[in-house]
From TrEMBL:
Pfam families: GFO_IDH_MocA, GFO_IDH_MocA_C3. This is Predicted dehydrogenase. Residues 8-119 form the Gfo/Idh/MocA-like oxidoreductase N-terminal domain. Residues 138-244 form the GFO/IDH/MocA-like oxidoreductase domain. GO terms for molecular function: nucleotide binding. SUPFAM superfamilies: Glyceraldehyde-3-phosphate dehydrogenase-like, C-terminal domain, NAD(P)-binding Rossmann-fold domains. InterPro entries: Gfo/Idh/MocA-like_OxRdtase_N, Gfo/Idh/MocA_Oxidoreductase, GFO_IDH_MocA-like_dom, NAD(P)-bd_dom_sf. It comes from the Bacteria.
């Protein structure tokens, strides 16, 4: 940002925990952006949030924000069940949107957002903060040029723990508000990073079950994903795992690269193991990566705001985010039908296009789930 460039004007919708993460990271950007307004239906919580982050304008309705102020980008930190409606309204106003994951509850909702984006001077991007850590950026470039040989196998595990009390919040654990369980709301972070590194997926076979938690959604899923490059990725998503970890592993012909963390990683979270016959140059290549920032919102915010100043589209753009959301829909479709699901198969004619559960969740009665 140069001295003659005005800060990017940010509005935040929602004032909960993730909104505080957004506000904190904007505040750390040295004047490149400033929060001009915030929205929340809870007036008391909104006031405390605005006081904490010195936000001049507050609204309890998004429509009032859209009519009463000027803005460059709106950060959606609201529950996922309202992302679609809010994103469309902001885009129709002509502003850009940066939405927390999941960006929408279904492919149908996401495509509605994309249609609004196509009509708008604004753009739509999804928070995918794990893509922006220095080691992930370097590995993405190395994979693209086949630096470690072909990829054979990848593992992608989100093994987290959420007790029954976690689901006392009314909108948690429901298909209507969250769109799914750990496959949708938790594992999306690691699956998105996986796909950003290894490229498109082709097909998936999956299982999903509700084993222990008082939810209408699954609390556990597994998937075997065939990647477009021919490799196989095995994915596990769980809320039943007392030793929590987020783990990715890439077995290339000449090296294994691993990432283990929980909610965010640093350079120290990565491990590199050369194949016995790989030669010292492979290790030297990995060790040549300079130290850099870990995952986090600030790196994505910096890229998004720079794109807005240059008239471009902030990352992660609609096409990238949709690929991840389509994989999640395919995991549910495979789990609940027993079939292998190909990329591109879930279209408007599929019950899994309008809802992740597809009306096929085996443990739900026609009247819903009496938890």
């Amino acid at each position: 940002m140069t001295a003659d460039q005005a800060p990017i004007r940010v509005a935040i919708v929602g004032s909960g925990g993730i909104a505080a993460v957004h506000a904190d990271n904007v505040a750390r950007m040295g004047g490149a952006a400033r929060i001009v307004a915030a929205v929340d239906i809870d007036a008391d919580r909104l006031k405390a949030f605005a006081d904490r982050w010195d936000i001049p304008r507050t609204y309890t309705r998004l429509d009032d924000l859209l009519q009463d102020t000027d803005c460059d980008i709106v950060h959606l930190c609201s529950p996922p069940g309202v992302h679609c409606e809010q994103a469309v309204a902001v885009l129709e106003r002509g502003w850009s949107v940066l939405a927390e994951k999941p960006p929408a509850l279904s492919l149908q909702e996401f495509d509605r957002i994309a249609e609004a984006e196509a009509r708008s001077p604004g753009s739509f991007a999804t928070i995918s903060q794990h893509r922006f850590g220095a080691r992930a950026v370097a590995l993405r470039e190395m994979f693209a040029r086949d630096a470690f040989g072909p990829l054979h196998l990848a593992l992608c595990n989100t093994l987290w723990f959420r007790p029954d009390e976690y689901f006392a919040v009314p909108w948690r654990g429901t298909w209507e508000s969250e769109g799914g369980g750990p496959t949708m709301g938790h594992g999306i972070h690691q699956m998105d990073l996986l796909l950003s590194l290894v490229g498109p997926w082709e097909s998936v076979r999956a299982t999903a079950a509700r084993k222990a938690r008082p939810t209408a959604t699954e609390d556990f899923s597994t998937a075997v994903v065939t990647l477009a490059g021919g490799a196989t990725a095995v994915v596990v998503n769980s809320l039943l795992s007392p030793r929590e970890t987020s783990y990715l592993r890439f077995d290339f012909a000449r090296a294994t690269v691993e990432l283990e963390h929980l909610y965010g990683y640093s350079d120290d979270s990565w491990r590199f193991t050369p194949a016995p016959d790989a030669g010292e140059e492979i290790t030297a290549l990995w060790e040549s990566i300079p130290p850099g920032p870990g995952s986090g919102h600030s790196a994505q915010f910096a890229a998004a705001f720079a794109a807005l100043r240059d008239g471009g589209t902030p990352p992660v753009a609609s096409a990238d985010a949709r690929q991840t959301l389509e994989l999640i829909a395919a995991i549910y479709a495979s789990a609940f039908t027993g079939a292998e699901i190909a990329r591109g198969e879930i279209t408007e004619g599929s019950p899994f296009y309008s809802t992740m559960g597809g009306g096929r969740v085996p443990w739900l009665t026609p009247e819903g789930d009496p938890r």
